């Protein structure tokens, strides 16, 4: 049998290994947090959170992802406008103001300080 692209590993062995690695990582991450996701609009000023998912659709989803609102990124609530909307966040080293309606489409888990 001739070695393929992945050397002497069979494709199913390789995919099983990757699947096993992802399951282990997900278990470690969820056990470390041991909390359920909340939406970004509920994060209190000064708290940090890790983005889990972006539930927005279409142009809004694309715009949020382009601005750095991607799963795995750490985001911190900086301040709220006087009338409550928009809210300023720090993500990837820059400040970003988002409407509360848009922030409600972003799921996060709270990070320990």
- In whole angstroms, how far apart are the ends? 54 Å
- Round the mean pLDDT to the nearest integer and report it: 79
Superfamily (CATH H level) name of the largest domain: Ferrous iron transport protein A (FeoA)
Please give the domain count. 2
Number of strands: 6
Low-confidence stretches: none
Radius of gyration: 19 Å
Going by helix content, strand content and strand pairing, the class is alpha+beta
Order of helices and strands: HEEHEEEHE
Largest sheet: 6 strands, antiparallel
* C-alpha geometry: globular
Number of contiguous helices? 3
Can you name the CATH architecture of the largest domain? Answer: Roll
With strands numbered from the N-terminus, the spatial order across the biggest sheet is 1-6-2-3-4-5
Helical residue percent? 25-40%
Question: What is the CATH third-level topology name of the largest domain?
Answer: SH3 type barrels
